[in-house]
Amino acid sequence: MARLRYLQNKRSGAAGTISKSTNKIYFFDDNAYIYGSSSGVLNLTATTLDFDATTLDIDATTIQLTGALELTGDLTYTGTLSVVGAMTFSDTLNATQTGIAITDAAGNGRRCYWQFTATSIEGGEQLTGLQLRASWAGTSTESTSGITGIEIKARANNDSITDTLGTAKAIIANVDCKKATFTTAWGVESQFDLSAGGTITTGAAFRASLNNSGTFSTSYAYLVETANVSYNWDYGLYMTDGQTDTGIYIGNATTGISLDGTFTTGLGVAGTLGTASARAIKSNVTINNCNLTDGVGTNEFQLSITGSGAGHIATTSSWLNIPSGTQGAGGSWLTPLTVGVWEASGATINGASITFGMHMQVHLGDADAARLCPFSINVSGDSIDAIWNAASPADYLGYAASTNDGESGIVPYLIDSNGRVWYIRLYDS
């Protein structure tokens, strides 16, 4: 039983008893005592304070704790938890022990800082620093309701703030491997778990939404850069084989894809097409009331050259490569380029001229070219059989038999702006 050493009675009866001045009430020995350090201040001093009670009620406007706080069991908090300064949660994790200690992280600019350290990870364990979950019990009367697992904002407090800051970042994902080796690493991972019978009408692993009424000098939904200019990403955007039906889909846009910079290859397509009728690149667009200027097509390629040319120069090249062992079907075409014009029977093109091969132009500032030709032909390994391959000369080339001696017939060669047709005489071999 605790022994009461000394107590000076200054007040008794209904008014109670007062321990005079800063005199102490000691329990057991000199290491546990109670005293009043000043008016309205009661001090409990002991090496250890043990509270053994079913319920402990503390009614105070402010509770101040100095030193480490260790909690065993569940902590339930009702109301608003306000932390002034930085708060750090650190943990040492192994196979048998998990704990959380609150330590000070003041001065690092973080208002809440979580630090989890694993001394060992064994047996296929996964170290998770923080998991936040919003679980739905399965009852809702509003189709506009939703679930948000975590919401993070970096924002100015109100519209009256007009100061300038360097950057604003809502989320920073950092994988710091040091000298360890990881098979794979992701800065951010997104995964949908959809069981049989579940439905997601529209799903996006990453969604960028712009809500802007101010001034955006330059905006990017996705920006790729490196912190160290000595290293580059191997791929700015990589899609695993067979994991997407459409690699990139772009809806309404002023410019779907824009390449503006210095490249070795601006746009490269390499690989094996999946079917015999597949296309590496396909352009299928519609223009209402089309009015392209002369010399401009729907698919436009331009090359501007500077300096001194040191070889052949071409804006576009198209090659058909036939490796060893390839067999062509009899009667089929092998050609690096096929072009044509298709018209529905209900279309009306009165007064228009149709050129189903190509429309060629040249605009020169002077006449210092060595040669000026619309075509250049180079054949290696064989000789050409004819300039044109026409199964029916009369139908395909406008051939007409000639009555002149020695002539087999004539074909129209050109038509001028007045509609006059000029012919070439042909001779049968």
Notable characteristics:
429 residues; little secondary structure; three-stranded mixed beta sheet; elongated; disordered N terminus
Shape: elongated
Determine the strand fraction and express it as a percent band.
Answer: 5-15%
Structural class: little secondary structure
Strand tally is 9
Number of helices: 1
State the major sheet.
3 strands, antiparallel
Order of helix and strand elements from N to C terminus = EEEEEEHEEE
| Adjacency order of strands in the biggest sheet | 1-2-3
User: How much is the average pLDDT?
Assistant: 82
Q: Percentage of helical residues?
A: under 10%
Low-pLDDT segments = 1-6, 89-107
How far do the termini sit from each other?
134 Å
Round the Cα radius of gyration to an integer and report it: 42 Å
Explain this structure.
With 429 residues, the chain is largely without helices or strands. Among the domains are: 1-51, no CATH class; 87-116, no CATH class; 390-429, no CATH class. The protein has one helix at residues 393-396; strands spanning 24-27, 29-38, 41-45, 87-93, 101-103, 112-118, 400-401, 409-415, 421-426. The strands form three sheets. The chain has a three-stranded antiparallel beta sheet with strand order 1-2-3, with no helix packed on it. A three-stranded mixed beta sheet has the order 5-4-6, with no helix packed on it. Strands 7-8-9 form a three-stranded antiparallel beta sheet, with no helix packed on it. Strand 4 (87-93) and strand 5 form a beta hairpin.
